Amino acid sequence: MKLALTSDSQLPVTDKEVEAGLQWVIKMYQQADTKDVGVVREYFAEEAKVHFGNAPPITGTTAIEGLFAWEYSAVESLDHVIRDIRVLHDKIMVTLEAIYTFKSGVEKTAKCLAVWHKTPQTERASGTDLYGDFTDVFKELIAAGGAPPVWK
User: Fold this and answer.
1) Global pTM value
2) Which residues cross the membrane (predicted)?
3) 129-150, pLDDT tens digit by residue?
4) What is the CATH number of the domain that holds 116?
5) Distance of alpha carbon 61 from alpha carbon 44, whole angstroms
6) What is the pLDDT of residues 14-27, one digit of tens each?
7) How many domains does the chain divide into?
8) N or C: which end of the chain has fewer CB within 10 A?
Protein backbone atom coordinates (compact mmCIF):
# COMPACT_ATOMS: atom_id res chain seq x y z
CA MET A 1 0.00 0.00 0.00
CA LYS A 2 1.21 3.46 -0.85
CA LEU A 3 -0.33 6.61 0.60
CA ALA A 4 -0.01 9.43 -1.93
CA LEU A 5 -2.25 12.28 -0.80
CA THR A 6 -2.48 15.01 -3.43
CA SER A 7 -4.70 17.57 -1.78
CA ASP A 8 -5.17 19.71 1.26
CA SER A 9 -8.30 17.80 2.35
CA GLN A 10 -6.72 16.91 5.67
CA LEU A 11 -6.52 20.55 6.76
CA PRO A 12 -9.15 21.57 9.31
CA VAL A 13 -12.10 23.76 8.36
CA THR A 14 -13.70 26.36 10.58
CA ASP A 15 -17.37 26.48 11.51
CA LYS A 16 -17.68 29.53 9.26
CA GLU A 17 -16.21 27.58 6.31
CA VAL A 18 -18.55 24.66 6.95
CA GLU A 19 -21.55 27.00 6.99
CA ALA A 20 -20.39 28.71 3.77
CA GLY A 21 -20.02 25.33 2.07
CA LEU A 22 -23.42 24.14 3.27
CA GLN A 23 -25.14 27.31 2.04
CA TRP A 24 -23.42 27.08 -1.36
CA VAL A 25 -24.64 23.49 -1.83
CA ILE A 26 -28.19 24.27 -0.71
CA LYS A 27 -28.54 27.33 -2.93
CA MET A 28 -26.97 25.63 -5.94
CA TYR A 29 -29.26 22.59 -5.79
CA GLN A 30 -32.31 24.79 -5.12
CA GLN A 31 -31.56 26.72 -8.31
CA ALA A 32 -30.83 23.52 -10.25
CA ASP A 33 -34.25 22.17 -9.23
CA THR A 34 -35.91 25.17 -10.90
CA LYS A 35 -34.42 23.96 -14.23
CA ASP A 36 -32.68 27.32 -14.69
CA VAL A 37 -29.65 26.86 -16.96
CA GLY A 38 -28.28 30.05 -15.35
CA VAL A 39 -27.14 27.82 -12.50
CA VAL A 40 -24.13 26.90 -14.65
CA ARG A 41 -22.64 30.39 -14.96
CA GLU A 42 -23.48 31.20 -11.35
CA TYR A 43 -21.88 28.11 -9.78
CA PHE A 44 -19.29 26.84 -12.30
CA ALA A 45 -15.99 28.48 -13.27
CA GLU A 46 -15.59 29.23 -17.00
CA GLU A 47 -13.38 26.18 -17.69
CA ALA A 48 -15.07 23.85 -15.21
CA LYS A 49 -15.22 20.12 -15.90
CA VAL A 50 -18.11 17.79 -15.20
CA HIS A 51 -17.35 14.06 -15.01
CA PHE A 52 -20.04 11.37 -14.96
CA GLY A 53 -18.07 8.40 -13.64
CA ASN A 54 -15.56 7.34 -16.29
CA ALA A 55 -17.20 9.19 -19.19
CA PRO A 56 -15.15 11.88 -20.95
CA PRO A 57 -15.33 15.23 -19.14
CA ILE A 58 -17.71 17.96 -20.23
CA THR A 59 -15.53 21.08 -20.23
CA GLY A 60 -16.52 24.74 -20.09
CA THR A 61 -19.70 26.52 -19.11
CA THR A 62 -21.08 26.54 -22.68
CA ALA A 63 -20.87 22.74 -22.93
CA ILE A 64 -22.22 22.29 -19.39
CA GLU A 65 -25.15 24.62 -20.20
CA GLY A 66 -25.86 22.45 -23.25
CA LEU A 67 -25.95 19.35 -21.07
CA PHE A 68 -28.26 20.99 -18.52
CA ALA A 69 -30.58 22.37 -21.24
CA TRP A 70 -30.78 18.88 -22.77
CA GLU A 71 -31.66 17.37 -19.38
CA TYR A 72 -34.14 20.08 -18.45
CA SER A 73 -35.95 19.83 -21.81
CA ALA A 74 -36.81 16.18 -21.13
CA VAL A 75 -38.07 16.48 -17.58
CA GLU A 76 -41.18 17.87 -15.99
CA SER A 77 -39.28 18.22 -12.73
CA LEU A 78 -35.92 17.51 -11.17
CA ASP A 79 -35.63 17.17 -7.42
CA HIS A 80 -32.42 16.70 -5.49
CA VAL A 81 -32.66 15.09 -2.06
CA ILE A 82 -29.48 15.82 -0.15
CA ARG A 83 -28.57 13.11 2.34
CA ASP A 84 -25.14 14.31 3.52
CA ILE A 85 -22.73 17.21 2.96
CA ARG A 86 -19.06 17.07 3.88
CA VAL A 87 -17.18 20.36 3.63
CA LEU A 88 -13.43 19.91 3.34
CA HIS A 89 -10.69 22.43 2.86
CA ASP A 90 -10.47 21.90 -0.93
CA LYS A 91 -13.72 20.19 -1.91
CA ILE A 92 -17.32 19.58 -0.91
CA MET A 93 -18.79 16.08 -1.06
CA VAL A 94 -22.55 15.65 -1.37
CA THR A 95 -24.43 12.38 -1.08
CA LEU A 96 -27.79 12.75 -2.75
CA GLU A 97 -30.59 11.36 -4.83
CA ALA A 98 -31.61 13.03 -8.08
CA ILE A 99 -35.25 12.35 -8.88
CA TYR A 100 -36.12 12.91 -12.53
CA THR A 101 -39.80 13.11 -13.45
CA PHE A 102 -39.92 12.93 -17.23
CA LYS A 103 -42.53 14.61 -19.41
CA SER A 104 -43.64 11.09 -20.35
CA GLY A 105 -44.65 10.56 -16.71
CA VAL A 106 -41.82 8.12 -15.97
CA GLU A 107 -39.86 8.76 -12.77
CA LYS A 108 -36.25 7.66 -12.32
CA THR A 109 -33.98 8.15 -9.31
CA ALA A 110 -30.19 8.19 -9.35
CA LYS A 111 -28.34 7.86 -6.05
CA CYS A 112 -24.99 9.54 -6.32
CA LEU A 113 -21.99 11.15 -4.75
CA ALA A 114 -21.03 14.57 -6.10
CA VAL A 115 -17.53 15.81 -5.38
CA TRP A 116 -17.42 19.55 -5.96
CA HIS A 117 -13.97 20.98 -6.58
CA LYS A 118 -14.01 24.25 -4.68
CA THR A 119 -13.00 25.68 -1.36
CA PRO A 120 -15.65 26.91 1.06
CA GLN A 121 -14.65 30.49 0.16
CA THR A 122 -14.78 30.31 -3.64
CA GLU A 123 -17.99 31.24 -5.44
CA ARG A 124 -17.62 28.86 -8.38
CA ALA A 125 -16.53 25.26 -8.64
CA SER A 126 -13.74 24.28 -11.01
CA GLY A 127 -15.61 21.05 -11.58
CA THR A 128 -17.60 18.17 -10.19
CA ASP A 129 -17.21 14.42 -10.29
CA LEU A 130 -20.53 12.55 -10.22
CA TYR A 131 -20.46 8.93 -9.11
CA GLY A 132 -23.56 6.76 -9.35
CA ASP A 133 -25.58 4.62 -11.69
CA PHE A 134 -27.22 6.98 -14.19
CA THR A 135 -28.01 4.20 -16.70
CA ASP A 136 -31.80 4.35 -16.38
CA VAL A 137 -31.84 8.15 -16.25
CA PHE A 138 -29.73 8.47 -19.40
CA LYS A 139 -31.90 5.92 -21.24
CA GLU A 140 -34.94 8.10 -20.59
CA LEU A 141 -33.08 11.32 -21.45
CA ILE A 142 -31.87 9.86 -24.75
CA ALA A 143 -35.35 8.54 -25.56
CA ALA A 144 -36.77 12.03 -25.01
CA GLY A 145 -34.04 14.19 -26.55
CA GLY A 146 -31.56 12.09 -28.48
CA ALA A 147 -27.89 11.79 -27.67
CA PRO A 148 -26.43 14.29 -25.21
CA PRO A 149 -25.14 17.28 -27.17
CA VAL A 150 -21.72 17.10 -25.50
CA TRP A 151 -21.00 13.47 -26.41
CA LYS A 152 -22.27 13.41 -30.03
Assistant:
1) 0.91
2) none
3) 999 999 999 999 999 988 888 7
4) 3.10.450.50
5) 7
6) 999 999 999 999 99
7) 1
8) N
